[in-house]
Amino acid sequence: MATVTIFDLDKKQVGEKEIADAIFNTEVKPYLLHDMVRYQLAARRQGTAAVKSRSQVAGGGKKPYKQKGTGNARQGTVSAPHFVGGGVAFGPQPRSYKFKLNSKVKKSALCSALSTRFQSEKLTVLNEINLGKISTKAFAEVMQRFELEGALVVIDKPDSMVELSARNLKNVKVLRAEGVNVYDVLKYPNLVLTEAAVTVIEGALER
Fold first, then answer.
1. CA-CA distance, 132 to 70, in Å (whole number)?
2. 195-205 helix and 103-119 helix, angle to the nearest 10 degrees
3. Which of 91, 94, 197, 200 is the most buried (most CB within 10 A)?
4. Which of 126, 139, 117 shows the shortest CA–CA distance to 195?
5. CA angle 21, 27, 32 (to 5 degrees)
6. pLDDT-based confidence at 132, cuts 50/70/90?
7. What is the pTM of this model?
8. Total Cβ atoms within 10 A of residue 20
9. In the chain, what percentage of residues exceed pLDDT 90?
10. Helices and strands in the chain: count of H runs, count of E runs
11. Which domains does the chain have, with CATH numbers?
12. Mean pLDDT taken over the chain
């Protein structure tokens, strides 16, 4: 099994922890990462773009002019697409962009994303994040101490002190372990986990 060093907030080594190779040191499969990012971004799309078709445009119940004798082409309604103010032909309608991925693919993709961070030495494990108070400055100092320009910070349980302290920092996001996902892991250049969060993630992905 692979081993990671555990640090405290002062960047002092306080121990080591074995991590599951199947989760943090497995073969990285780029095609799974691609599929999962597409899946997440597609699910976020609102799909509310819409225009009116000829049946939805108000008016148009009467012929604009008589059928014969005008020298013009016959016209049945002013709501037809070729009239100004008429309906749109084949325009966008509300739809869902979601598509299906099975749970095995989702789990494998997350393992690949976590492995990407471990194998590129962009994974930092802390014994805990205890700031003692809500302080953006204190959280920023921790990031600077570890020389992290941007990071996804994963904690094991709700912690308002950590979440509120990091809220206004640029390129920093705090997630709870149950919400860790491929898109966010890949979006931020560094991954910071608490020791307890590692245990939660391993417990969820080893099922």
1. 85
2. 150
3. 197
4. 126
5. 120
6. confident
7. 0.85
8. 17
9. 95
10. 7, 6
11. 2-45+98-205 (3.40.1370.10), 47-96 (no CATH)
12. 94
